Amino acid sequence: MSPTTALGAGLKVDVDALPQPLKEDLRKGKVDLHGPATTLALLKLNAFVGINGSFDKTGNLSSVGITCAGCHSTVDDSFAPGIGHRLDSWANHDLNVGAIVNLSPDLTPVANLLNVSEPTVRTVLNSWGPGKFDAGLFLDGKAFNPHQVNRRSCNRN
Ligand code: HEC
Questions:
Q1: Does the CB atom of residue 66 touch ligand 1 within 6 A?
Q2: Radius of gyration over every alpha carbon of the chain, rounded to an integer in angstroms
């Protein structure tokens, strides 16, 4: 995934984690924001707010984890949209969880679990938009709510 895609999905970059020369290159437009290699470099710098990459001995990304800050922190956009100083405990209302899950190349485990097609899962994920998470998909195991009831505000099953 490129930094542009990550920023577009609402992930944030902590400008204070970036070395000065990188900040200067970014300002001059010399950094390739469309290449996954830059995303890996940013992960190594621990620059994505709330996203932790683990790298093996050969420097390959072996796993990625999210922390509370992924949703409960944002940035002030002081450097560029999505790039700035951390604002911890500010909700990240730009985070598009559905889009992020949709970046996964294989969602068949979710589709199989829910007994729906993979395109259906992707359609549902795309329907959420920034700042939204529908527990109905993953936690209740229902792709679409048959009664169109807002499950966050109603406890009826
Ligand atoms: C995937 C996004 C996400 C992650 C990761 C996340 N949260 Fe949350 N958290 C939320 C959302 C959304 C709410 C609001 C839920 C609601 O209002 O129904 C919330 C609510 C809360 C609340 C309640 C706040 C209140 O006003 O009642 C606390 C406390 C909290 N989270 C702590 C944490 C901690 C600690 C972690 C890490 C261990 C964490 N969260 C990780 C999304 C997240």
A1: yes
A2: 18
Residue nearest to atom 43 of ligand 1 (CA): 71
What contacts 135, CB < 8 A, 6 or more positions away? Answer: 151, 152
pLDDT band at 156; cut points 50, 70, 90: very low
CA pair distance 26, 49, nearest whole angstrom? 18
CB 42 within 8 A of CB 48: yes
Cβ of residue 98 lying under 6 Å from some atom of ligand 1: no
CA distance 56 to 83: 27
Query: What is the rounded CA–CA span in Å between residue 104 and residue 101?
Result: 6
pLDDT score recorded for residue 102: 94
Amino acid at residue number 68: C
Average pLDDT over residues 42-62: 96
